[in-house]
Write a structure and sequence with these properties.
This protein has 493 residues and is of the alpha/beta class. The chain is built from 17 helices and 20 strands. It has 3 domains: 181 residues, FAD/NAD(P)-binding domain; 104 residues, no CATH class; 123 residues. Bound molecules: flavin-adenine dinucleotide.
Length: 493
């Protein structure tokens, strides 16, 4: 057992995604000596956008929830001191946040739980009992989430066994129609799960976060990563880029540091692994982890990857869309195995808009190129990407009409995600937090070895919100509840 209030000593954080940088900023604010090591030349992981053909393309931040003044993510960002440097625009102020388009109807997801309940009642007048049951539970989770109970309440969040059960099964028990199930199915896809796999608690948490208020980045999508990096450096944090951690150094029973690909060694008393835990086991000397611990990590199943197409279109011929559009093709039972996400925002070049389209894609679909690296996969891979992009473009044309001035800016696959951030199998949202796997992930919140903690999207929940909350939780574990309350929560309240 770790003693409360132990001094973490020198801290090394592996990975500069939102999880690593959030943990780094909190610890630097608390006066600790922190070094973040990032394997890529640019810090930020999935929150970092990139430039292609002069266009600015987002990766892992298409929209964000609960950033209005006083709302959970905003309070956490205010505590970190990054809010003012991240340009945002609010969605859903004059219409929906999301529009779900099915073959024969569409449903608008508005801001606010009352408006959501009203839209559901209007669309499904015969299912008021079911809708009331769902929105009652949603309100409970949403109220607790809005108060940030997860961090602030001494009791934490009362999580019942039922809240880990499947949302899909819950809706079947309530007697929801297939059509209502398909409308309610979308939020679980935002963390890479089907409704059937998605635990009630996670479902309501994701939906609450976006219903409170939804936002997207305005302008340059590198700014978010830069805001986090700038803040971390300003607080005295050290950032090493373009040199990943290759080995975790240990003495019997404890951490002593990390060795980087360049051979450089960094001493540390505490390591926060803000990368996938499956990347950490090979970094440890044999026999440091108990064999059952290592096996448990290896056996964890991950969410699938995403296939993403970014297109530039003529800005004078196409309006930007102030909401996201989901084109959905439900199965007979209402499940959403197939569907695509579309977002049209202002492009970074004058007179253009950017249309981003994405859909779930397993790495097995890219099997012939699995052993290749980004930029070296050959013309057949490029051709396959273009072929698949063709289907997306056809779908977008059916939605928006002929795409004037269209120009493919970039196409990426789960292999790209795998190589960019080291996510096993190109997984977009890391470990599946499914009802059947949830209990098997609980051990990740305890130190794997004295001084070794996990953080990042794999520790509590994925998405910017889930990863940020997870980073605060890991700091609580490292510095102990008493100090966390006194030095972090006091300022957050
Ligand atoms: C295409 C896509 C779209 C998404 N859209 C949204 C969205 O709209 N809204 C939302 O909330 N969430 C979205 N997400 C999810 C969200 O981006 C992630 O949950 C979150 O960014 C994960 O942060 P992280 O810090 O855990 O991991 P990462 O961002 O993956 O960071 C891990 C970092 O560790 C580095 N690293 C790996 N191995 C090493 C090593 N050995 N040494 C040093 N560094 C290493 C990686 O290079 C990377 O920089 C999306 C994800 C994807 C893939």
């Amino acid at each position: 057992m770790l003693k409360q209030n132990r001094d973490p000593g020198k801290i090394l954080i592996i990975g500069s995604g939102v999880g690593g940088l959030t943990a780094g900023i909190i610890l630097a604010k608390l006066g600790h000596s922190v070094t973040i090591v990032e394997k890529n030349a640019g810090a930020g992981g999935l929150m970092r956008g990139y430039r292609r053909r002069g266009f600015d393309c987002p990766v892992g931040v298409h929209y964000l929830g609960s950033l209005a003044s006083g709302q959970p993510l905003r309070r956490l960002w205010d505590y970190l001191g990054v809010t003012g440097n991240i340009p945002l625009e609010r969605m859903g102020t004059a219409g929906p946040i999301d529009r779900y388009i099915f073959d024969d109807f569409h449903f608008d997801l508005p801001e606010g739980l009352p408006a959501f309940a009203e839209n559901l009642m209007r669309a499904f007048p015969g299912e008021s009992k079911q809708i009331t049951a769902v929105t009652r539970q949603l309100r409970e989770v949403s109220d607790s989430f809005a108060r940030l109970d997860m961090l602030l309440s001494p009791e934490g969040v009362p999580v019942s066994v039922e809240s880990f059960s499947s949302m899909g099964e819950h809706l079947v028990r309530l007697g929801c129609s297939e059509r209502l199930k398909s409308v309610l199915g979308v939020p679980s896809t935002l963390i890479g799960l089907s409704l059937q796999e998605c635990p009630l608690f996670y479902y309501y948490l994701v939906l609450s976060s976006y219903l409170l208020s939804s936002w997207r980045l305005r302008g340059d999508s590198l700014r978010m990563a830069e805001a986090f990096v700038g803040r971390f450096r300003k607080l005295g944090g050290q950032l090493v880029v373009a040199d990943g951690v290759e080995r975790i150094l240990t003495e019997p029973g404890r951490i002593t540091g990390g060795r980087l690909h360049s051979g450089r060694e960094i001493d540390a008393d505490t390591i926060i692994a803000a990368v996938h835990p499956q990347n950490i086991t090979p970094m440890l000397p044999a026999d440091v982890l108990r064999s059952d611990q290592a096996e448990r990590i290896d056996r964890l199943e991950n969410t699938k990857g995403l296939f993403v197409v970014t297109l530039a279109v003529d800005g004078s011929a196409h309006e930007t869309l102030p909401y996201n559009l989901f084109r959905l093709h439900p199965e007979a039972d209402g499940s959403l195995a197939r569907g695509s996400f579309h977002q049209i925002r202002e492009g970074s070049q004058p007179g253009t808009h950017l249309l981003t389209m994405m859909a779930t894609s397993g790495i097995e679909e890219w099997h012939p190129w699995e052993r290749t690296r980004s930029g070296q996969r050959g013309e057949d891979y490029e051709q396959e990407k273009r072929n698949r992009a063709g289907a997306f473009i056809a779908e977008a044309t059916a939605l928006f009409g002929p795409l004037k001035g269209k120009q493919i800016v970039d196409i990426y696959t789960p292999l790209t995600i795998r190589d960019w951030v080291g996510s096993p199998g190109g997984s977009a949202y890391g470990i599946r937090r499914s009802s059947s796997q949830l209990m098997k992930t609980a051990f990740l919140s305890r130190p794997a070895l004295k001084g070794l903690f996990f953080a990042g999207q794999n520790i509590l929940a994925p998405g910017i919100m889930g990863t940020t909350l997870g980073a605060f939780q890991v700091i609580r574990r490292i510095i102990g509840q008493e100090r966390f309350s006194r030095e972090v929560l006091e300022e957050l309240r």
